[in-house]
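Support reply, case 0932

Customer input (verbatim):
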Amino acid sequence: MHKAGIADEIRERIRRGGVFDGLIPCETAHIVIDLQNGFMGKGQVMEVPMARTIVPNVNRISAALRAAGGSVVFTQHTVDDEAIRTWPIFFEHFCGRKRRTSYIEAFTAGSQGHALWPELDVAHEDLVILKSRFGAFVPGSSDLHVRLQERGIDTLIISGTLSHVCCDATARDAMMMNYKVFFITDANATTTDAEHGATLTGLASAFCDVRDTQSILGLIATA
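Our regenerated output:
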């Protein structure tokens, strides 16, 4: 797993007890971001090797929250014709021409790359949400906000990949939509320690309560 890499002044703030005192499980959802074959499998177009190491922690959080009466949500990064048409800035400038075709094929619904990683524990009551942008809360990206509000959710636990892209984007928007957000240091992963550490520092400074898996399990257990 990544070294946490949080800036010293932010780390000191976390040591003082975090942002939130606790959580109410039935009002909490564990949002598992994009742990799909296209990001997880060896040799895949967007392989994030470190993401394979966080799966046990992701499963532990999901199991604990389910048992306490909370919700678990899996998002799947999804490319379709509408996404390509309405998001040309990404597909034409950031995706890269050489990788574009492979990327689209990998994350088209129904493809092997689009499927959730088989080592994830997914229960029948969990939600699976398709999203067409990095952030799940961007208008038009998904119906995540509506589905969470239907369940009375006001607190989110964020895990998944990539820390500094989809996980970061979802966490920031969630806080600005007035969700309490926990971002888990050892249940998120990206391509380098530097990118992961910068993400944790930025989120801890103004957006999220940044904790490790053991800490969030403790909050769930004592709720």
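We compared this against your earlier run and they match. Two observations from our side: The CA atoms of residues 183 and 210 lie 5 Å apart. Strands lie at 28-33, 71-77, 127-131, 155-161, 180-189, 209-211. Please reopen the case if you see a mismatch on your end.
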